[in-house]
């Protein structure tokens, strides 16, 4: 961010165009930071909810930790998330063929968020928050 651009060799029109591009870049970066911050807040809230619900004796044995729907033998069977180890229902999970395991929607979103943040920092060159 501390770099200065030498625009002396550009025409006024070219310099104006460069300025617009830089301003748009700042705007897009700010929107992306806000989006990631909002996503992180939602994930934190979900983690807090799970923490509270998991303390209720045997709650997660009978209900999905994500949507609270009760497990049934055939229609809504339970499965365990490979990452968080909570029991989840079919609608709150996806099967990861590569890992041969189920992962809940929240853990999947969290891992997607980490990838997005890493690639964002790689592009900007600032791996420090």
Automatic annotation (TrEMBL):
GO biological process terms held by the UniProt record: intracellular protein transport
Compartment(s) of residence: Cytoplasm, Perinuclear region
Q: Which GO terms describe its molecular function?
A: actin binding; myosin binding; small GTPase binding
Positions in coiled-coil regions: 29-56
Q: Which GO terms describe its cellular component?
A: cortical actin cytoskeleton; perinuclear region of cytoplasm
UniProt cross-references to PANTHER family, sorted A to Z = MYELIN-ASSOCIATED OLIGODENDROCYTIC BASIC PROTEIN MOBP -RELATED (PTHR14555), RAB EFFECTOR MYRIP (PTHR14555:SF6)
Pfam families associated with the record: FYVE_2 (PF02318)
Q: Which parts of the sequence belong to the RabBD domain?
A: 4-106
Where the protein is mainly located, per its record? cytoplasm
Please tell me whether the keyword Transmembrane helix is annotated for this protein.
no
* Swiss-Prot/TrEMBL keywords: Coiled coil, Cytoplasm
Put simply, this protein is called Myosin VIIA and Rab interacting protein
Domain of life, per UniProt, equals Eukaryota
Classification via Gene3D superfamilies = Zinc/RING finger domain, C3HC4 (zinc finger) (3.30.40.10)
